[in-house]
Amino acid sequence: MEVFPAFFPLKGRRIVIAGEGEGADAKARLLASSPANVERIAGEAATLPEAYAGAQLAFVASPDAAFCAAAAKAARAAGAAVNVVDHPDLCDFHTPAIIDRGQVVAAIGTGGAAPILAALLRADLEAKIPTALGPLAALLGRHRDEIRAKFPNLAERRVFLRGLLDGPVAVAAESGDLEAADLALRDAIAAGGVSPSGRVWLIAAPAARDLLSLRAAKALADADVLVLGEAAADVSVLARRDAGWRTLEASTAEGIAGEAAAGRQVAVIAPAGELALLAVVLTDLGAPHEALASAPPG
After folding, report:
1. Is there a domain that residue 119 lies in?
2. Which of 75, 86, 127, 190 could link 80 by a cystine bridge, Cβ 3.0 to 4.6 Å?
3. What is the pLDDT of residue 80?
4. Domain that holds residue 273
5. Cβ distance 191 to 150 under 8 Å?
């Protein structure tokens, strides 16, 4: 990882856009719906440090390279993090391609090396991220303290939240009925959650990471427990950092089935032959499981 992605809270923060032209206008459009205090400056004033006093972020855009360098120097002297359009060497941070769903924001970056690639990826992902995720996230945020109090254990809280995404709360939010979504969430909290719906995902270790299917990648991203057989290391980086990790050699089918019975999502990554043997035992144990094949090379 050559750059570290981070999200800056914008509510009430001062953001300065220095310069004129399409680049500056684009930054203004990007931030138009944010809760930040966005100010635009131009000319000689933009080269003075006092113009950026109290600003957390500064965006500089101009066809004049000398202006960009002077404005970036002034903003940085005032303590602002600086982004200069088309001048990655002058930047403290790079602007990613952004998918905006309100409280839910996805950002794709290339470290300033190839912004067009980030834009193409954004176009692919835009249609796959429901518009209701933003209102749903805001709703969960309003009830954060109640949810934490009801489910102090992180694993139990994750099971509860996963259940919400497949239940009436998400359905109501998707339809735009936020009042019904709020009532359904209150009911779910009061009832103590939803029934655990654990599952074992059997993922055939692919010859290369980019041969992993989308469903397999999603299963990896959702997994609470990762069980790794041979040739699994390359795709295991797609899993959550806080997932439990263990080797297939040190695991038993009964233990894996028990994890699913407790409501956890278990991803087993191993060669197809090993998964076939495990599937037979899981079937005998009555453990819910599904095999996810990878694409063949070539």
Report:
1. no
2. 75
3. 97
4. 199-292
5. no
